[in-house]
């Protein structure tokens, strides 16, 4: 079964054709990052308009690269939640209209389920149940994936997402948007113990965490240094911050594995591209004597291939939508 999938939840207009949930036939991503970089972050209205301009050409390119015509695809899928509502509506409405006009099923997909499913594309042997640390720009959580479409959030951030913290810290340090990859690069060779930064703890909810205090600590540190005329050692601060994020996330995935007895460990989302986090996850999983599944960097950030992978399993579970399907800024996984 070949599914044409559309992703437009934030600032990437993406389309892909995926076969049977596991094989990438094409994967096209048109990023708007340069336009948003001018403003230091994603401007929702600009994102929506950018999707309108790009979506038709991106979808056509995906079908062409797969060696097909629109009429050859078996179903059309789109991210319908969570995300920027105007941005989501562009992709969802495009996909619904296409499905309706071609007389094909329409499959609405949850964006975080999609991030998790990126691993299904990379690892043919991976099957539920598994535990997934999903960390991106909009959310950060530990998910028990009981089955392809049966998931439970075991813990997560009480405030900022990990990627949001990376982006804000990058902004304070003046290194540009998107901040995660830039901080990751700066952290190479930095001393991760040079700056003492907080690790959050939520009383009574050991799998929950917070990044707002860590983010504020870095902002205060930068402002204090500026006032005193002191130089910030950017590489050291980037390394110390990256270590604090990793120290917040990795032990919680470990605790979730101990609590549930599920020892198949997976990472997902844009922040799963972070080199410190990847190294720490590998070291932690090695302690259990298991591998940790992490998507290749090309599938960590937003893309439509992951939406097409999840869409296949949603279709098998009967989770199709109608022309009346709405998009939602937030929704339970
Ligand atoms: O998954 P994603 O592309 O979009 C959402 O679904 O939110 O994640 C984007 C986030 C951004 O905050 C970006 O700064 C962060 O992922 N990110 C990284 C890295 N690459 C992307 N954060 C840390 N290290 C990276 N290498």
Describe, in plain words, how this protein is organized in 3D.
With 333 residues, the chain is an alpha/beta fold. It folds into 2 domains: 2-116 and 300-316, ATPase, nucleotide binding domain (Nucleotidyltransferase, domain 5); 129-294, 2-Layer Sandwich (Nucleotidyltransferase, domain 5). 45% of the residues lie in helices and 19% in strands. It contains 11 helices and 10 strands. The protein has helices spanning 33-37, 44-65, 85-102, 111-122, 162-172, 179-187, 212-228, 234-260, 275-288, 297-300, 305-316, and strands at residues 2-7, 12-19, 23-31, 75-81, 106-110, 130-135, 140-147, 150-156, 265-268, 292-293. The protein has a 5-stranded mixed sheet with strand order 3-2-1-4-5, with helices on both faces. A 5-stranded mixed sheet has the order 8-7-6-9-10, sandwiched between helices. It is globular, with a radius of gyration of 20 Å. The model has no long low-confidence stretch (mean pLDDT 97). The structure holds 5'-O-[(R)-(carboxyoxy)(hydroxy)phosphoryl]adenosine. 5'-O-[(R)-(carboxyoxy)(hydroxy)phosphoryl]adenosine binds next to helix 5 and helix 6.
Structure keywords:
binds 5'-O-[(R)-(carboxyoxy)(hydroxy)phosphoryl]adenosine; five-stranded mixed sheet; Nucleotidyltransferase, domain 5; acyltransferase; 2 domains; globular; 333 residues; alpha/beta; tRNA N6-adenosine threonylcarbamoyltransferase
Order of helices and strands: EEEHHEHEHEEEHHHHEHEHH
- Provide the structure class: alpha/beta
Which range best describes the helical content: under 10%, 10-25%, 25-40%, 40-55%, 55-70% or over 70%? 40-55%
Q: What separation lies between the terminal Cα atoms?
A: 24 Å
Overall 3D form: globular
How does CATH name the architecture of the largest domain? Answer: 2-Layer Sandwich
DSSP E strands, number: 10
CATH topology of the largest domain: Nucleotidyltransferase, domain 5
Number of helices: 11
How much β-strand is present in the residues? 15-25%
Q: Main β-sheet: number of strands, strand sense, barrel status?
A: 5 strands, mixed
- CATH class category label of the largest domain: Alpha Beta
What is the name of the CATH superfamily of the largest domain?
A: ATPase, nucleotide binding domain
- Ligand names: 5'-O-[(R)-(carboxyoxy)(hydroxy)phosphoryl]adenosine
Task: Give the mean pLDDT.
Answer: 97
Count of separate structural domains: 2
Query: pLDDT under 50 segments (min length 5)?
Result: none
């Amino acid at each position: 079964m070949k599914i044409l999938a559309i992703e437009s939840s934030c600032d990437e207009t993406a389309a892909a054709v995926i076969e049977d949930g596991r094989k990438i036939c094409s994967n096209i991503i048109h990023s708007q990052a340069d336009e948003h970089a001018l403003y230091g972050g994603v401007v929702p209205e600009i994102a929506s308009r950018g999707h309108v301009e790009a979506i038709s050409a991106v979808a056509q390119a995906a079908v062409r690269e797969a060696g097909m015509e629109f009429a050859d695809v078996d179903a059309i899928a789109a991210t319908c939640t969570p995300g920027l509502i105007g941005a989501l509506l562009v992709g969802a409405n495009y996909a619904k209209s296409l499905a309706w006009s071609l007389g094909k099923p329409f499959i609405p997909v949850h964006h975080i389920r999609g991030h998790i499913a990126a691993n299904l594309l990379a690892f043919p042997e991976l099957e539920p149940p598994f535990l997934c640390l999903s960390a991106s720009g909009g959310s950060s959580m530990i998910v028990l994936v009981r089955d392809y479409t049966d998931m439970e959030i075991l813990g997560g951030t009480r405030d900022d997402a990990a990627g949001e913290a990376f982006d804000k810290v990058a902004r304070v340090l003046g290194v540009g948007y998107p901040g995660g990859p830039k901080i990751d690069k700066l952290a190479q060779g930095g001393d991760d113990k040079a700056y003492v930064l907080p690790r959050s703890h939520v009383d009574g909810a050991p799998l929950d965490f917070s990044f707002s205090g860590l983010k504020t600590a870095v902002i205060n540190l930068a402002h204090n240094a500026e006032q005193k005329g002191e130089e910030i050692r950017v590489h050291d601060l980037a390394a110390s911050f990256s270590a604090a994020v990793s120290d917040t996330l990795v032990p919680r995935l470990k605790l979730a594995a101990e609590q549930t007895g599920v020892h198949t460990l997976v990472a997902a989302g844009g922040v799963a591209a972070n080199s410190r986090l990847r190294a720490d996850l590998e070291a932690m999983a090695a302690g259990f004597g298991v591998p940790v599944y992490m998507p290749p960097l090309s599938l960590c950030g937003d893309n439509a291939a992951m939406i097409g992978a999840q869409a296949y399993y949603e279709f098998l579970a009967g989770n199709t939508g109608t022309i009346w399907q709405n998009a939602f800024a937030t929704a339970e996984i």
